[in-house]
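Duplicate of #3305? Posting structure anyway:
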């Protein structure tokens, strides 16, 4: 397995090529998707993409931490942490080599 990370530009290039659209259009689609995810999570809602996974927000309680340099106790504020739970289709694609997540097929099976 390769340890090379894919960045936003690489993802835009792959989207443009796979969809036969311009890189500008692919970039706008990706940016719109990411902004929609952010706005939904800010509103405290989750996003469930059948076959891919669920984006959500989990609360983290306030806690006491330590400054590693001085050892002094510090108060760490409570925070909302974005989370992602992979769906079965994504897990299967990663583990069994499927190249796509067949969302339409899964929706038909679920009667959506």
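Output from current build:
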């Amino acid at each position: 397995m390769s340890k090379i990370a894919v960045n936003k530009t690489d993802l835009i290039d792959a989207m443009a090529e796979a969809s036969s659209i311009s890189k500008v259009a692919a970039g706008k689609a990706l940016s719109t998707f990411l902004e929609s995810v952010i706005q939904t999570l800010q509103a405290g809602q989750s996003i469930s993409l059948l076959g891919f996974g669920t984006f959500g927000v989990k609360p983290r309680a306030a806690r006491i931490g330590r400054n590693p340099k001085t050892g002094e106790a510090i108060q760490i504020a409570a925070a909302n942490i974005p989370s992602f739970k992979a769906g079965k289709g994504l897990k299967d694609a990663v583990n069994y080599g499927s190249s796509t997540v067949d969302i339409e097929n899964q929706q038909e099976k679920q009667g959506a």
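Confirmed duplicate; merging threads. The chain has a mean pLDDT of 88. The first strand starts at residue 47 and ends at 49.
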